[in-house]
Fold this protein.
Amino acid sequence: MINFFRKIRKKLADDNKPLKYMRYAIGEILLVVVGILIALQINSWNADRINNQEERRYLIRLTNEVRSEVNYLKDIKDDFSEMNKGLQRIIKQWQSGIPVIQDTVQYLQDYTSGSGKDPWYREPVTWTQLQQSGDLNLLRDKNLNDELFVFYSEVKNLGDNFILNPMHEFINTREKVNVPLINDGGVIIIFKYLELFDAKNEKIQINKEIFNKIWNYRQELLPYYVRVAGICQFQTLKLQRVIKTGEELLVKLEAAQGITTEQELINPFIKDLP
């Protein structure tokens, strides 16, 4: 094709027809420009197609990660909630001044609630990769981008704040909790009573000396347990708010992928599509 146009141009030049040659030259330039523009458009379209596919992959991964994180936070919230219930029961028992225990195993489980919880924050893989790789710009919905920042920031701040102060309260209380539970050999013996069963599947008889030690030590433990119970209640409330933020974010992440209930019923594996 190029050779064909070149022959035409040569013929016009040889025939000494400059006006026709100029028109042809301008037409050829326009043809080249149009070709370049078409090539650029094709490249741009192809790049957009690749970016859209990559964005969808990230959205799917983020959806799965946020869903996993929300479920994980629910478990952490439930842990704090259960600890708070146990602490409230044993605080009420101690404040009553009546050393009558209806359920010895429950009483010991409530007592060990004072040991608290270890740090629970975990680094999000996909969100961290998005930020470090510079691929965050692939997410075209900037409002969704902002809400991802909010959610992950809230989770991290809550996890970091737990390590800064509440964790120290738990460590101090844990040391106090262990005092009545150490036998002559320096071994903490309470946990075997909570876990072991005899051959007839009957709970082992627990040495009454342990209960006497705990009861006599209760006044010293009480302020620690009250503080830890307050921490558990606070953490439960804060986690509930973050969980709500995560659940709202999940709806928007699914909407960004075009996932609806009807689509999920038709193809339950739609979330795993590339």
